Amino acid sequence: MLEESAQHLNQRFSRQIPMARQMGLRITAWDGRTLRMDAPLAPNLNDKGTGFAGSLATLATLAGWAVATLLAEGVVGGPCEVAVFKSEIRYLAPVTGDFYVLVPVPAEEITQAFGLELQERSRAKLALTAAIYQDGEEKVRYRGRYAVWMRQA
Q1: For residue 78, what is the domain's CATH number?
Q2: Residues 89, 145: contact at Cβ < 8 Å?
């Protein structure tokens, strides 16, 4: 079931966010606790031959969006809308090879409060963190706040 959710989101990215396809972004793991999304360096290069900051920010933002979507749709059992409304990113070192992002699910009390608010008010907010790695070395830190609302039928 978890793998099917990740595959479904990969298909959504491909259909709804053409840039994700052009960048080669792909969810490669989702175990219900952490999402991993990978990206190749080649389509995400800057003029210095390293990872383009905009691509790195996009990867982190979309991976956070994916986690918020998976959590929200798991709570309500149907489609939800998710949008980032605030983010902060810190570039720690240049990315010189293929890279990936890890987004952990927040602590259980946070996700429970998020789910309860979403069920009661049909909307909620969720803060997520992410880190981008290359060969196991952390290169970028990201924090994003996402607004989530139930899709109207």
Answers
A1: 3.10.129.10
A2: no
What is the phi-psi region of residue 25: left when phi exceeds 0, alpha when psi lies from -120 to 50, beta otherwise?
A: beta
Vertex 129 angle, CA 79 and 94, to 5°:
120
CA 92 – CA 75 distance, rounded (Å)? 35
> What's residue 3's pLDDT?
63
Report yes or no: 38 and 108 within 8 Å, Cβ to Cβ: no
Q: Of 91 and 78, which is predicted with more confidence?
A: 91
Task: Give the span between the Cα atoms of 97 and 45, in whole angstroms.
Answer: 10
Question: What's the domain count of the chain?
Answer: 1
Encoding tokens for residue 134?
Answer: 């290359």
pTM: 0.93
Pure H helices in the chain: 2-16, 18-23, 53-76, 108-121
- For residue 78, the tally of other CB atoms under 10 A from its CB is 10
Give the Cα separation of 148 and 84 in Å (integer): 9
Q: Which helix (H) or strand (E) holds 52?
A: none
Closest to 128 in 3D by CA, of 81, 50, 68, 56 = 68
140 is in which domain, residue-wise? 2-150
